[in-house]
Structure formats: C-alpha cells, structure tokens
Amino acid sequence: MLALSDTCLKERVLKEDVLVVHGGTPLRGEIRVRGAKNLVSKAMVAAVLGETASTLYDVPAISDVEIVTGLLEAHGVRVSTGPEGELVMDPANVTRAAVDEINVHAGSSRIPILFCGPLLHRLGHAFIPDLGGCKIGDRPIDFHIQALREFGAVVDKRPDGLHLSAPQRLRGIKYELEYPSVGSTEQVLLTAVLADGVTELRNAAVEPEIIDLICVLQKMGAIIKVHTDRVIEIQGVDRLTGYSHRPIPDRIEAASWGAAALATHGEIFVRGAKQADMMTFLNVYRSVGGAFSVDDSPVGGGIRFWHPGGELQPVALETDVHPGLMTDWQQPLVVALTQARGLSIVHETVYERRFGYTTELNQMGANIQLYSECLGGTPCRWGRRNFLHSAVIAGPSKLHAADLQIPDLRAGFSHLIAALAAEGTSRVYGVDRYISRGYENFDGKLEALGARTERP
Ligand code: EPU
User: Fold this and answer.
1) Closest atom of ligand 1 to CA, residue 326
2) Beta-sheet pairing, 403-405 with 425-429
3) Nearest-angstrom CA–CA distance, 101 and 343
4) Neighbours of 294 (CB within 10 A)
5) What does the entry list under GO cellular component (predicted)?
6) What is the rounded distance in angstroms from the CA atom of residue 64 to the CA atom of residue 259?
7) 311 within 8 A of 340, measured Cβ to Cβ
8) Which of 28-32, 108-112, 408-412 has the lowest mean pLDDT?
C-alpha cells in the first residue's frame, strides 16, 4: 500500500515538474544574472566562522541556497532575507544540530562537506550526511578527508554519514592536492583560517569563485596569500568577524544564456555578466562564430550574445580547471555545436561521466559520438580508465522535439536549450527538481526572452 502511494506521489511530482516547450523561436531580450551559485553557497558556510552577523547581497533564489539555509538554521544560525536578494546570517548561537534535521538535506547537494572545518572550530564536532550533487562522475571526497585528518580532525565514516571531532584546536598543514579540486581547496581555506599556525596548500584550484571566497574570508579577518603556481598560504588567526559582500556574478548561468542565444539564432543581453571571468568562454564563442559585445558600465552593464547569421564553425576544445574552459560550460556549448558545419571535438577532463545528456540530444536528431580516448589536447586522468569522456559532434543537425527526462542541473539546461532550438513541442521533465538548483526564475526569464513555454 505504501509502495503504491509512493509511486503515485512520484508520478504526480513528475507530471507537475514539466515544462512544455514550443521550440523554433529565437530567444531575444534581456535577463539578469545574480551572485554565483558556486560562491554564494560557500560564503554562506563561511558565515559560521564569524563571531558577528554576515550579509550577502544579490543572492539568487535557487534551491541550493535554500538547502544551505536549512543547514545553517539546523545549526542555530539565524538567517533572514531582505529586498534585492539580501541574506543576513547571524551565527551567535551556533549549536549542534540533530542528525535528523541534517539528514533532511542528505543527498541534495555537495555543500554539507564544507561545513566540516567551520563546525569543528565552533563546536569541536560535526556530522555530515550523505552528499548529493549532479551524477557526473564518482565525485569522491578523499582529498577533503585526508586534509581534515592532517589538520588534526578525527573522521569516522559511518553508514549514516561522516562523524568528525577535533579533540584539540586544529593546526595548520602543508598539503598538496593530487588535482586542483575546487571543493577541496575551499575545504582547506575554510578550515585553515582559524587553525593554529600556517597552512600551505599546493596545486590549489584558483577559480574566480575561490578568489571571491578568499575576499570574503579576508573581510572576516583572515590572512591569505595567493602565490603563483597554485600555491595558497593561510596564516591562521584566533577569531573572525562577520562580513558584508556582493558576490561575483554567475558566469555559468551567463554562459548558458549565451549558448542559448547561439543555438536558437537569437540575441540575449545578460545583464551582470562579467568579461574577466568569462574570457575562455568568450574565445570559444567567437571561434564558433557567435558574436558578443561587452558593456562594462558599473551599473546595468553586461554582455550581449547573438548569432550574427551565416554558418557556425566547428571547434576542438577541452575542459579544464581555471583558467581553462569550465566543465560547466561544456553542455550548453555542445548544443550550439550541433549547429556548426563540420566535426567538433570536445575532450572533458574534469569529470569522467559528463556526456550522459548527449543520448537525448541524439534522439532529437543530433549526431554525437562518444569515445573513451582522450581526443585532442593533453591525455587526462580518464583516458586510461575507459570512460566515455570525449565527444565528436557532426553538424549541422536539424533538431526535432522530444520528451526529455533531465538527469542533472547543467545537462538539464542543455536539454532545455535543445528543446528551444528544435522544431515542434517538447516536454522537459524534472525542471523544478534540477534546473531550479542553479537557475533563478528560469520560467520568468524564458518568458522575458519570448520563449513559447507552458506549465500544463
Ligand atoms: N575529486 C577527487 N577527490 C576529491 C575531490 C574531487 O578526486 O576529494 C575530483 C572529482 O571527482 C573531479 C575533480 O576532482 O573529477 C574536480 O572536482 P571538484 O572538487 O573541483 O568539484 P566540486 O568542488 O565538487 C565544483 C562545482 C561544480 C563544478 C566543479 C568544477 C560547486 C558546488 N560545484 O564542484 O559545479 O563543476 O567545481 O569547476 O561549487 C554545477 O554548478 O553544476 C557544478 C557541478
């Protein structure tokens, strides 16, 4: 009986969580991007480290922010919102959370793992539930755990999650990452700032979101030096205060709309998009034949993306850590590449399984073949391990409508772009569950851009 009602519930959710897309209309108009999801969520965790309240501005209304808000509140942080995306977090009464309260968020995001350092400093212990996030690879947390153990944390892996304790004040470490992982770099930063002594992190990630997190921590009182060659040095301090911060804009969302303009033969002004953080994307965009112009007015500036007419050109590209081409830009770009004349090659070097979404694109008429060899560029970690991590895209392909079940956040947005570019009516399932994790008010933005969509 329970199983039956569960199934009914699942079907109902699936039916409700659908966007009907009448494709074939160029997207035209203006939308605005707010603070980067992958900075905002980390800055929210950093608020736990302060002795006074912190304020973040321009926070997007996305479900990842709701998840981190839930985790903060479960730990006694008072969170309040103001106009224009203002978020105030007061950690004065940080306290141990009930396992059940934390478990509500199990499997929903990768962010909980970053609470380790801040909670160990504030409370001496932490519980981290099973992690979620997009299913784009194994996504191990071995670097996080190794580093935390070096800091002096006791990490106990149990079936319900990780139980951590810090019998003494954590102490600074010398640590070299095997790979410049974004999350592990953030883990070390968030732990080292209040540890005793100096931490030297080698082979660190230096994504703009990490530099912005360093700005947040510096405002709180941290002493962090970013040296050349991916070396970050953190001098531990005894206390940190709250911060007030306006995050960098979301360069993944901005690029997603840029790719949507290209794939639908449209023109989109992405207000808030910042050129400096998107240079690699803009180079590829231009090489493919897309056009853009930068308006760098301090208020109201952004980047205009458009399809200038004529044929798009094929390209060979490779995803990489910053300053390389972001892996999160790959999926929306591939949809645009289905419209280029000739063979494009994309080598994904960050995640081993980030091409799953191409099955649906092929069902819509695209011609994308996957290979386990490292095609083009430098051999990567996945070539020896037989993962289908290179793609050859033959175009141009006329895309036709389909019913699509989206598998994760970025792949979901790509499916949405494909449905908008295709002739006919597609039904895209899972939009609220996945796309709203990282794209604020995408229904409203689609409407503003003249897309013909409906909620049945
Ligand atoms: N890795 C390990 N061991 C670890 C940690 C990472 O082997 O302990 C590997 C991963 O398996 C992966 C590589 O290192 O192959 C890079 O992973 P990274 O740690 O950099 O990724 P992340 O911190 O989990 C963040 C973003 C992702 C983005 C990547 C790369 C957040 C919440 N997520 O993930 O964003 O793709 O960095 O830039 O910041 C998204 O927004 O949709 C998204 C997936």
Assistant:
1) 38
2) parallel
3) 50
4) 14
5) cytoplasm
6) 23
7) yes
8) 108-112
* Contact status, residue 416 vs residue 21, Cβ threshold 8 Å: yes
Task: Select from 133, 140, 137, 141 the least CA-distant residue to 64.
Answer: 133
134 is catalytic: yes
Nearest to 68 by CA among 8, 18, 117, 113: 113
Partnered with residue 314 across adjacent β-strands are: none
Is 38 annotated to bind ligand? Answer: yes
Q: Which amino acid is at 454?
A: E
Nearest to 336, CA basis, from 426, 410, 411, 265: 265
- Pick the residue whose CA is nearest to atom 36 on ligand 1: 328
**Order of strands, edge to edge, in the sheet holding 390-395?**
316-318, 342-347, 390-395, 367-371
Is the Cβ–Cβ distance between 179 and 352 less than 8 Å? no
E-strand spans in 363-451? Answer: 367-371, 390-395, 403-405, 425-429
Residues 118, 50: Cα–Cα separation, whole Å = 9
Q: How far apart are CA 252 and CA 435, in angstroms?
A: 13
Q: Give the pLDDT confidence of 412-421 residue by residue, as tens digits.
A: 999 999 999 9
If DSSP codes are grouped into helix, strand and coil, which group holds residue 59?
A: coil
CB-based pocket (< 6 A), ligand 1: 38, 110, 134, 137-144, 179, 181-184, 205, 252, 326-328, 350-351, 409-410, 438
What pLDDT is attached to residue 110? 81
Q: What is the pLDDT of residues 31-48, one digit of tens each?
A: 999 999 999 999 999 999
